[in-house]
Amino acid sequence: MTKPRVAIYPGSFDPLTLGHEDIARRCLHFLDRLIIAVAHHPTQEKDRLFSVDERVEMIEERFRDESRIEVTEFSGLLVDFAKSRDASLVIRGLRAVSDFEYEFQMALMNRELWPEFEVVFMTPAADYTFLSASLVREISGLGGDVSRFVSASVLKRLQARSRS
Ligand code: PNS
After folding, report:
1. What's the CATH superfamily of 6-163?
2. How does pLDDT run across 101-140, given as a tens digit for each residue?
3. For position 55, what pLDDT does the model report?
């Protein structure tokens, strides 16, 4: 029997945007299973809009209908998490040239740490190439309309957070 094709899609997902969702669903065209892994950096938690539990919850809500997607959190090194799940393939979204340097450096460093590490860069739909979670946070926090950039359930959480 051939081994199932499994990959990890790691990130902060603060919050999950339609760009993230687009990439996750595209991956299922060539994967058997995708593990969306929310990074938990205890020292950075104070700078996050949503807690790790909330981020996991909002991603789970969106992919409840998709049995090939698992959502979890991880802390520590990505390569250690990937080894623990026996998945050497990682997915990252690449929107523009500006993303490239950071992604390239991270990919090569991860491979230094674990030679089996491979990364697949995915391009989102053109509509989402300008979209980032940090811009969504900023616009929403300043009262702007982000309904085109996030799902209705994420929007509800953002609005509740802006009011509190
Ligand atoms: O969505 P982000 O913030 O761009 O995701 C970055 C993430 C979580 C993939 C990256 O920070 C990461 O892999 N963190 C885990 C810690 C780690 O392995 N650091 C070494 C990277 S070379």
Report:
1. HUPs (3.40.50.620)
2. 999 999 999 999 999 999 999 999 999 999 999 999 999 9
3. 98
- The atom number, within ligand 1, closest to the CA of 133 reads 1
Q: In whole angstroms, what is the distance from residue 57 CA to residue 44 CA?
A: 19
**H or E, element range at 104:** helix 97-113
Q: Contact at 8 Å (CB) between 151 and 64? A: no
d(CA 164, CA 139): 16
d(CA 24, CA 6): 12
Q: Rounded to an integer, what distance in angstroms lies between the CA atom of residue 10 and that of residue 136? A: 19
d(CA 61, CA 130): 24
What are the boundaries of each domain within the chain?
Answer: 6-163
Looking from the CA of residue 13, the nearest atom of ligand 1 is: 1
Distance 80 CA to ligand 1 centre (A): 12
Nearest CA to ligand 1 atom 6: 11
Distance 1 CA to ligand 1 centre (A): 33
Give the CA radius of gyration of the chain: 16
Q: State pTM to two decimals.
A: 0.97
Residue 83 CA, ligand 1 centroid: distance in Å: 15
